[in-house]
Specification:
By secondary structure, the chain is of the alpha/beta class. Helices cover 26% and strands 35% of the residues. The protein has one domain. The chain contains 3 helices and 7 strands. A 4-stranded mixed sheet has the order 1-2-4-3, with helices on one face. A 3-stranded antiparallel sheet has the order 5-6-7. It starts with 6 loop residues before the first strand and ends with a strand.
Amino acid sequence: MGATSGLTIIDRLDVPQVVKFTQGFLADYRTTFPRNRKLGRSLTIELKTMRRDAKRELSGRCLYNYKPKGEPAARMFLIRVRVNSKNRYPVTHLYPVGTEAVEDDSSAYRYLMESVRMTSEREVTAFVVGHELYHFLRKTGQVGGQNRQTQANKFGIKFLRDFRQKNGMAATAVVGTCCCREV
């Protein structure tokens, strides 16, 4: 079992289901690192709306060794999740979840894409939190893999599916078909 005493969630989106699910999920992981000065000592997750002039529907960042203003001795992991209050739901995005080699060219590859349909602010928040948690868990060595966006997207999609299942929401909103885009 992990120590979640170092976890702080600042919820300015008013999404208590996402907060509760995230706390339960992180109960199996460490969220405090008292002796690690390079990475940060605790985890803070900040859930907010975007600025009024924002054009994107969602945004997320995982910051390591973040120093809050006015507290030079404090260091933390900070996950910032922003959701645009002007979003019209449902929103659908294509996310790369892996790659595969192109048969004719040994150096070329294409992304495997997954379409994700999110029907509410809660679902968008859950997906972005899951995506950014992957970066945190990977940086702290608590999950395997490489710190790549494709793996973080897969983790975020699974986090969203688990969130929906736990809260009795329709599981059909994640479209399981993948398509390919050459790069």
